[in-house]
Amino acid sequence: MQKSKFLNIVLASAVLVLAILLTIKENDSGKSANRVAVASENSTMAASDSSAIPFNKKSVGIKSYLYPQPAMVIGSYDKEGKPNMMTAAWIGICNSDPLSIAVSMRPATYSYGNVTDTKAFTVNIPSSQLAKYVGYAGTFSGRDVDKFKETGLTAVKAEFVNAPYIKEFPIVIECEVTAIHELGSHRQFIGKVIDVKADIAILDAKGNVDVNLLNPIIYAGGNFYETGRLIPKADRSMEKIDGKPFVADYSKRHENQTLEVIHNRKSVRNFTDQPVSKQQIETLLRAGMAAPTAVNRQPWVFYVVTLRKTLDALSEQLPYAKMLTQAQAAIVVCGDMEKAGNLKDEGYWVQDCAAATENILLAAESMGLGAVWTASYPYDDRTKVVIKELNLPENHIPLNVIPIGYPTGEDVPKNKWNAENIIWR
User: Fold this and answer.
1) Apex 112 CA angle, 110 and 117, nearest 5
2) What is the pLDDT of residue 6?
3) Each residue of 208-238: pLDDT tens digit?
4) Global pTM value
5) Peptide bond into 170 cis (omega under 30)
6) What is the number of structural domains in the chain?
7) Domain at 360, CATH number
8) Is the pLDDT of residue 22 over 70?
9) What gap in Å lies between CA 341 and CA 359, rounded to an integer?
């Protein structure tokens, strides 16, 4: 009897499994073509997947190979109120609510004593241009040198905590110590984030930090590195295909960041009211002056217009520059006929100023700004308007007016690739 029951159970189980397999096969039949296409399209990804390559592992011992590591500078006051800064790599977000940062320091460091006494610190996030200061702050002790004095950086008293922050660093985070943990070689300080300040030059149209504009540095193997370019957005890296998670193929990205900027450049005609700084304008102009120029004549001169009255006046009179009412500034690219000399008759100044203009447009795209080329020359009526409103001298001929501002996101790049425009010889 027991044997008969057992056989019945086995038989029933076999029938159930067979039915499930047939159902799965039937449901998958309509999806097979799609799966084949997906596999084909992502064959490159599959070939590079860790499951397809037999990696050989070798034990290297206990090493701090958690790469990349952040490279932050901690600001603190000593007992006499003297500001100090220290580079920290053992640091990171450790809690969401309340938002908290954990930073570990060795007892031998000067900052260790400062933070222990004041129960406060600031986290100063550098851009890649500030790497030399990060290196300096991590090399010397505040006991021996006044790091702010030696570097020329500016210590500013934090608004909400008893600690200094570094004025020149693009992001500063004010933290209040809420817990301290003895770990062994290091003591870990838990700092509740009280306030975050960011330079407007690194904020996008929505007021969020643009990581490309910040360009923070990271630490690995004793060296500093830039963060590199965007791959996928975190919330878009996974897609559902046939009910299964699938990593999208991002191999069709452009080969480097320069090409990304070129292909993402667009004519921006819709701007927010976020201000544009003088430093940002100067960065655009430096890019413009890096353009090629015939016989190195550099026959250009740039007028920067920020006066609202003038921007509005140009907007009213120039038929294709109505967006100047929204723009925070404008760059007027002019040809200087005295600099052009005898080349002006050949129109080289137009080519040179056009090259400078394109550099400005690409630089704006790379900085998270928006810009658009609105023509002045060779239209006499438009040229006369610009000359009159800006009171230009006789030898300065305006080629165009470039509105500058932060884009609203309404304008998008166009795919202008057309193989029919190419003739191979």
Assistant:
1) 105
2) 43
3) 998 888 889 988 888 888 887 666 555 544 4
4) 0.62
5) no
6) 2
7) 3.40.109.10
8) no
9) 23
